[in-house]
Specification:
5-stranded mixed sheet; 11 helices; alpha+beta; single chain; 339 residues; 4-stranded antiparallel sheet
């Protein structure tokens, strides 16, 4: 992959769209024709494919269409509008689509297989003729409409194998060591809804087991989404310790922290660690069905449930988040943890 194209990809091709796709026989045929890894491309041993066959899903068919269509730029505006919904075209107008993708390595890429798949999403490994490797991630709703598209470079080795230090979150600026632990709250009034919340708090000591950046399933999800080796996610330095005693000198004020829409608690680890180091207890609540990947201590996960087109209800979203963060429920669970 030449340096100019790599730079263009990094600058222009982290794309998030809301769009609509097609489930017609032509798209299915395209997916089937592209599902096998071409003999001219080789998969490096560090890249682990779940399969060389794209799954028979709407998301996979949409990836097949996208790769095929980008290979014959410019795509007619009418065809783009057929595959992309109004919400997606508001972010990336049809008349700009060709210009954006012309800068990407998808132009000469072929599908090698997929590296992650759910019922509503697929991450496909692509290879181009220059030997570069990419991950194209695409998610659809229950109607087969594209909700997001992302393109990332696929590194061929971990930071450690390249002789680089692990990624480290910013060091906390407060005086307290920081501890973290995960609790699960069950809301009987809402059908037994289970809500994981991660506590970040002033700790008695900084000695003990370093806190991981993300639990195992979330690590795997982040690695496939960001196209980085799992080892790089696992090695992230958090500057926090796993479940030490709460520091003496309390009580400490409590901050309820809700991730942004579609995000998960892991995303804010550096920020909330810093807040906790200044003498605050930070309760970061994950919202099942909202966060892109919500993981419980037992390893079970809940993927996001994107709204169908035209059904997004911000008021309902806020109401769910408020209920998830209900102070009495969370404070009781926390008191049980620290008492």
């Amino acid at each position: 992959m030449n340096q100019n194209r790599r730079a263009a990809l990094g600058a222009a091709l982290l794309i998030t769209l809301a769009a609509c796709g097609s489930n017609d026989d032509a798209a299915r045929s395209t997916a089937n024709s592209m599902s096998s890894r071409p003999t001219a491309l080789t998969t490096p041993p560090e890249v682990s494919l779940l399969s060389e066959e794209l799954p028979d899903t709407a998301a996979a068919r949409q990836i097949a269409w996208l790769v095929e269509a980008v290979g014959r730029l410019p795509i007619p505006v009418e065809e783009i509008e057929e595959h992309f919904a109004a919400a997606g075209l508001a972010l990336l107008p049809a008349d700009q689509f060709n210009a954006v993708f012309a800068q990407s390595n998808v132009v000469d890429a072929q599908v090698m297989g997929f590296v992650a798949s759910t019922t509503t999403s697929v991450d496909a490994a692509l290879g181009d003729r220059s030997g570069g490797h990419l991950v194209l991630s695409l998610a659809v709703d229950d109607q087969g409409k594209i909700l997001s598209v992302q393109l990332n470079l696929m590194p061929l080795e971990s930071r450690a194998s390249a002789g680089l230090d692990p990624i480290a979150l910013p060091e906390p600026t407060g005086d307290h060591p920081v501890g973290t632990d995960v609790i699960v709250v069950t809301d009987a009034e809402r059908g037994g809804r289970s809500i994981p919340a991660q506590l970040w708090y002033p700790a008695e000591t900084d000695e003990g087991q370093p806190a991981p950046y993300a639990p195992p399933a979330t690590t795997a999800y982040l690695a496939s989404t960001l196209a980085v080796p799992e080892a790089d996610i696992e090695a992230i330095v958090t500057h926090a310790t796993l479940a030490p005693d709460v520091a003496a000198g309390g009580p400490f004020p409590v901050v309820l922290f809700s991730p942004g829409y579609g995000a998960t608690r892991t995303t804010y680890s550096g920020l909330v660690t810093d807040i906790a180091s200044h003498g605050y207890i930070v309760v970061v609540t994950d919202h099942p069905g909202d966060g892109s990947r919500v993981e419980f201590p037992d390893g079970s996960t809940v993927a996001a449930t994107p709204p169908s087109e035209g059904e997004f209800d911000p008021a309902a979203l806020v109401a769910t988040r408020v209920a998830d963060n209900e102070v009495e429920t969370l404070s009781t669970a926390f008191l049980n943890r620290v008492s």
